[in-house]
Design brief:
Phosphorylase Kinase, domain 1, 889 residues, alpha+beta, six-stranded mixed beta sheet, 39 strands, elongated, 4 domains, 23 helices
């Protein structure tokens, strides 16, 4: 029996080697056939060639300058899926394979947390509800395209033979294509619930709008495509491809580059076509700013589809979220398959009578075609049947994975898709074969020795450490490749989880944010930290947040970053552990002895540091200003946190575009983020910081009122600061009003905010008063500085300032010289003189004035609350003088 098993193993190895040998010989034959051609040519790049891919599978070559169609190629449809409507059906997005679920029992449309390519990468997998099993596969293929004449040749290197040997010419281009097929089966009745095929072409780069010289607008339901030049005055060209456009590509030296384009409804596209003459008019008209994101649900002869599209709600109807009752089952059987909504008054009682909305009706189920509100995300738990490094099945939620993470986890299962010339494709093929054969040989030779070595190491660690945890991943399987043995020695307390160097307790939740973000208490390298867990759809934001934290966290008022770790589902960021936020401080959930004014100054200092690095926070609010743990001296600091929405300004730029959309928290967003301004600056943070200061000083109130009307009041510049209208808040009122200016250009910079006298200590105030007095001591009465200081000083001095001081100080002032009670210069002179001769004053006078500097300054500013602000604003005329430059930004 042992001999029989050995013979079988030998036969399997021999068969394996034979397969690789056959493949190698096949590639050698292909190489010889290609070399037999008369000549090889480098790829000739045709300028202005635009590749247009449509839903029906056609590929068009178009001159991007004049719209001339050079050639077209028919192919298989991009999407192929059922057209019947059931109680639950799925609508794929033909641009990227995203999935939307339509359910008549679950409130209509929901966005699935995975795409068709992601499902295929995870399959075989199963859902936790209704016994649904997912199976899928993908097929990679190459074809050559003569870009001059539009001639296509299939190139199947893994088939039994090559039907047509592609000829290498200067116009030949190798294009990769991937076809994803997914099916959902019921384990209860063995039926196929839903299946689909999605096809996409390979591209080496995706251009941003700033990298491209044209602006393309397409229709969500027809094949119309409009093209503008970014710097031109007129519409360049328009073509109707008879099928919706799903992708645009340009031909570059390194292959196809995917191009940006905006999908609009028919009505909105007509408005662009008929009402505008240039792209600059489009931007200046504010049309793009008033577009609403929707999901267009439509039907082609190959299946249902869903396209994210932008609409002008004033010109395009948006389907209601809930359909009214239409008819009973008996009546439904007699209805036609598709009915125009505007022909049925009882279907959609909307006075606008939308033209592009229709119904797909089955005896029991209804699907409304047209523009729907952008659906919310939903979570569908799956269990993947992949077995990697372990026989233990891994619980995976596809909503916690994006394409990048799937490619990391399944790297050995996901071959790269490249776009190459004919010669480059051959080189790649031979390289892959050589590497594969080499890996197989190394694997066979080292497998036994590797297993033995690992086994010895495990036994040694178990014997030395007893029950200590070593390298247990989230699935419970040893993971020896991710971390060093020193790290694997770390003991994980009961009830905790570890990912890399981070240990955390999922039951100890410190807080949570939007998009499913949670913050846990944890440890990093023996230090107490806050562990921020982020979902896959936010990974790009997390990477940007980490990058900006690394760049800025050297400042004492910016939260400190430690490390990032990733498992198969989430990304974890270890940050400085804090007591709470300013919200907790105001609502008395956190006890903090640090004065509120000091915390506000520290928060403004952190923002000023970000601005000095060209970073705009864009989400300043009390929840994002945290309070640190006490240091050795018991001091607590304010820390700027949550960099998820931050924007890094381009080098040399002082503003940024709003193309990425409105960011921030409603009620804290500056008005220019919501109006027609095309670019904004760091002043958006200044506005939010002004709201933040009022929130803290007023004890939790908002300058723009309650939550329901708050953002509307911001747009209308309607704010009230009545909660801090007392005299002692004069400087605070001025600063907040300055920061809340509706015109962003009238707001101060963060450096000017920090230089404002509201944040001055009593010592600095006293120095300022003394310097002002010294500066104007010898000035004539008619000088512009003295005139500015004395103008409108009646309200500052309250008539005669000598009537408002103590009798002890009044009697002492009369002993040496006379002071005019109506002169502000004389009041400043009296303050300076008493400060300089403080030790020579009688005891009753020093007792009345209090200690220098705090009590001394408050003696005067409490009696004359407007004195500091009036002097500060007046002396701004000499702010560039060396004596005063230190008081102004």
């Amino acid at each position: 029996m042992t001999l029989y098993r050995a013979m079988l193993a030998h036969q399997r190895k021999a068969s394996f080697v034979m397969k690789f040998t056959s493949l190698f010989l096949l590639l050698m034959n292909i190489k010889q056939a290609l070399l037999a051609q008369e000549k090889t040519y480098p790829l000739a790049i045709q300028e202005h060639l635009l590749f247009v891919s449509t839903l029906d599978g056609s590929l068009y070559g178009v001159n991007s300058v004049n719209g001339e169609q050079r050639w077209s190629i028919k192919g298989n449809p991009v999407l192929n899926n059922p057209t019947d409507v059931r109680s639950r059906t799925f609508l794929p997005d033909p641009t990227d394979g995203s999935l939307y679920m339509y359910s008549t029992t679950h409130n209509g449309l929901k966005k699935m947390p995975f795409t068709i390519p992601q499902l295929v990468s995870l399959s075989p997998c199963r859902g936790n509800e209704e016994g649904i099993l997912y199976t899928g596969y993908k097929k990679d293929s190459w074809f050559t395209l003569d870009t001059e004449h539009g001639i296509k040749h299939d190139f199947d290197v893994f088939g039994d033979k090559v039907d047509v040997c592609p000829q290498s010419t200067q116009h030949s281009l190798f294009i990769g294509k991937t076809e994803y097929t997914i099916a959902m089966h019921s384990s209860l009745d063995k039926s196929t619930r839903w299946n689909a095929t999605f096809t996409e072409y390979s591209s080496t780069h995706t251009k941003t709008i700033d990298e491209y010289d044209f602006r393309h607008f397409s229709s969500s339901s027809t094949g119309s495509l409009l093209t503008y030049a970014a710097d031109a005055r007129t519409l360049r060209w328009q073509i109707d491809f008879k099928s919706p456009v799903v992708a645009l590509y340009s031909l570059e030296v390194d292959g196809l580059h995917k191009l940006p384009f905006l999908i609009l409804s028919n009505e909105s596209l007509d408005y662009v076509r008929r009402g505008l003459t240039s792209i600059s008019d489009l931007e200046s008209s504010g049309f793009v700013e008033h577009l609403s994101p929707t999901l267009y649900v439509g039907e082609s002869k190959h299946g249902l589809y869903a396209l994210p599209s932008m609409v002008d709600a004033n010109r395009t109807a948006i389907a209601p979220r809930h359909l009214p009752e239409i008819a009973g089952p008996a009546v439904q059987d007699e209805l036609p398959n598709v009915i125009q909504v505007n022909q049925k008054e009882n279907v959609l009682p909307d006075s606008r009578k939308p033209r592009d909305v229709s119904l797909k009706i089955n005896p029991k189920d209804i699907l409304l075609f047209g523009n729907h509100h952008r659906p919310e995300n939903t979570q569908v738990p799956l269990i993947s049947d992949y077995k990697k490094d372990s026989d233990t099945k891994v619980a995976v939620e596809p909503g916690d994975l994006n394409e990048t993470d799937i490619s990391d986890v399944l790297e050995s299962h996901t071959p790269s898709r490249l776009l190459l010339s004919a010669e480059g494709a051959l080189i790649l093929s031979f390289t892959l074969v050589a590497v594969t054969v080499g890996c197989v040989v190394v694997y066979i030779v080292t497998k036994r020795s590797s297993e033995h070595s690992v086994k010895v190491l495990i036994e040694k660690e178990l014997s030395d450490k007893g029950k200590k945890s070593f390298g247990t991943s989230i699935t419970g399987s040893p993971n020896f490749s991710d971390h060093s043995w020193h790290e694997l020695d770390m003991e994980v307390p009961e009830g905790h989880s570890r990912v890399g160097k981070i240990i955390f307790n999922t039951k100890d939740v410190l807080g949570h944010g939007c998009e499913g973000t949670f913050v846990y208490r944890g440890k990093y390298d023996g230090r107490d930290v806050a562990v921020k867990r982020i979902l896959p759809e936010c990974f790009s934001l997390a990477e940007r947040e980490v990058q900006l934290l690394r760049e800025s966290d050297q400042h004492p008022n910016v939260i400190r970053y430690f490390c990032t770790e990733t498992d198969r589902q989430f990304r974890y960021i270890a940050l400085e552990l804090c007591l709470g936020s300013l919200t907790d401080f105001i609502e008395k959930r956190v006890v903090c002895q640090t004065p509120a004014l000091q915390l506000l100054e520290q928060a403004m200092s952190g923002l000023a540091h970000l601005h000095s690095l060209g970073i705009v926070h864009r989400d300043v609010k009390p929840h994002n200003v945290l309070l640190s743990l006490p240091d050795n001296s018991g001091q607590i600091k304010a820390l700027i946190s949550d960099f998820g929405l931050c924007k890094k300004l381009a080098a040399g730029k002082h503003s940024f575009s709003k193309a990425s959309g409105v960011t921030g928290t409603e009620g804290w967003i500056a008005p220019e983020m919501l109006n027609s301004e095309l670019r904004t600056t760091t002043s958006v943070d200044v506005f939010s910081a002004g709201c933040l200061i009022y929130y803290v000083v007023s004890g939790g109130k908002h300058a723009f009122g309650d939550k329901l009307r708050r953002q509307a009041n911001i747009l209308n510049a309607e704010y009230k600061l009545e909660s801090i209208s007392s005299p002692e808040h004069i400087c605070c009122l001025h600063l907040i009003s300055w920061m809340l200016a509706h015109d962003s250009h009238e707001r101060p910079s963060m450096a000017e905010v920090l230089a404002h006298p509201y944040f001055w200590s009593e010592e600095k105030q006293l120095r300022f008063f003394s310097d002002v007095s010294d500066r104007i001591e010898k000035e004539p009465e008619g000088s512009y500085v003295v005139r500015g200081l004395e103008d409108r000083s009646d309200s500052v001095l309250k008539g005669d300032w000598k009537d408002h001081i103590s009798i002890e100080l009044y009697n002492d002032l009369k002993r040496f010289r006379s002071y005019r009670g109506s002169s502000l210069r004389d009041l400043l002179r009296a303050m300076r003189n008493k400060k300089h001769h403080y030790r020579e004053l009688p005891e009753e006078v020093t007792k009345s004035l209090g200690q220098i500097p705090d009590e001394f300054v408050r003696y005067f500013t409490s009696r004359f609350p407007k004195l500091l602000l009036h002097s500060y604003l007046t002396m701004a005329c000499v702010r560039k003088e060396p004596l005063f430059s230190k008081y102004y930004s």
